[in-house]
Amino acid sequence: MNVLVVEPGMAPYEKEINGLKEMQATVGGLITASYPYEEPVAIVSNDESILEGMPFNRSIEGGYGGIFGPFFVCGLTEDSFCSLTPEQMEHFKKKFHQAEILIAVKGNEPITLKVDPRPHTPPDQPKHPPKKPGR
Predict the structure, then answer these.
(1) Of 117, 69, 84, whose CA–CA distance to 15 is shortest?
(2) Which residues are registered as beta bridge partners of 65?
(3) pTM of the entire structure?
(4) Which of 77, 78, 80, 59 lies closest to 68, judged by CA?
(5) In whole angstroms, what is the distance from residue 24 CA to residue 15 CA?
(6) Residue 1 CB neighbour total at 10 angstroms
(7) How far is 77 from 56, CA to CA, in rounded Å?
């Protein structure tokens, strides 16, 4: 299924995930799902992210608080996860584009500072561009 992956501090990116093991690898452990939106999508995250000390990722409106560690957004069928539609993919790319820094918490609402994200670097590309030879 084609999902949108959101990692702390990074720009969201599309990824093809197949099966439970790949879902768990994407979030770094046991999965849990949240359903904060009226449209048929789920936020799938690590069930033990806070216990594992994962960094804050993004806030979720509507009393859901925030998500720690990496998560992905996927579509929903009547009884399982599925790919996002192209329209959903674009909507959630925009929604989660800005990275967030957790400043404080008031009740269940995180107070964050929105910042420009670092671009996602695919695993087959170097993290830093090669340096140009000096003169």
Answers:
(1) 84
(2) 60
(3) 0.86
(4) 59
(5) 14
(6) 17
(7) 29
58: alpha, beta or left? (left if phi > 0; alpha if psi -120 to 50) = beta
Supply 87's token pair: 């329209």
- Sign of the torsion angle spanned by Cα atoms 82, 17, 101, 87: negative
User: What per-residue string of b and e applies to 88-107 under the rule 16 or more CB within 10 Å gives b?
Assistant: bbebbbebbeebbebeeeee
Average pLDDT over residues 62-87: 94
Residue % of the chain over a pLDDT of 70: 90
Instruction: Confirm if 49 and 67 have CB atoms less than 8 A apart.
Output: yes
Judged against a pLDDT cut of 70, whether residue 68 lies above it is answered with yes
Task: Assign residue 53 a region (left: φ > 0; alpha: ψ between -120 and 50; beta: otherwise).
Answer: left
Give the pLDDT confidence score for residue 131 in this predicted structure.
Answer: 55
